[in-house]
Amino acid sequence: MKAPSSNFTTVDAARRLLSSMEQAINGLIDEIRKPVDPELTGSPRKAELSAIKQSVIDARELIQERQRLEELIRSLEDNDEVSEERDFKAGFAERKIKG
Fold first, then answer.
1. Residues in contact with 14: Cβ distance below 8 Å, sequence separation at least 6, in sequence order
2. Neighbours of 40 (CB within 10 A)
3. Cys-Cys with 40: which of 45, 49, 61, 71 at CB 3.0–4.6 Å?
4. What pLDDT, in 10s, does the model give residues 29-52?
């Protein structure tokens, strides 16, 4: 097994992941924007629409995870550690209530 690099930091890795997630989200959006072939009917059309729907769901999930990762990065930059008080799985309303 390769020894960990002394230059590796969690914040840098998280930032690289953010960049990769952005590319993935943009790729999904590009796929969603493609028009459905008007010649398709029946099962092939249904399969195409189902694939588009799954791409929308995947993009939404990536956006949500990216937002959580941005919060983690802010926490790391502010405290130089991950705060155990933060619950990154809480929903938006729950986080607002917690302040």
1. 69, 72, 73, 76
2. 13
3. 45
4. 999 999 999 999 999 999 999 999
pTM: 0.69
Both tokens of residue 72?
């983690």
What is the distance between the alpha carbons of residues 66 and 31, in angstroms, rounded to a whole number? 19
Whole-number Å distance between alpha carbons of 53 and 36: 12
Neighbours of 27 (CB within 10 A): 12
Exposure pattern of 28-37 as b/e (b: 16+ CB <10 Å)? beeeeeeeee
Distance CA 65, CA 99 (A): 20
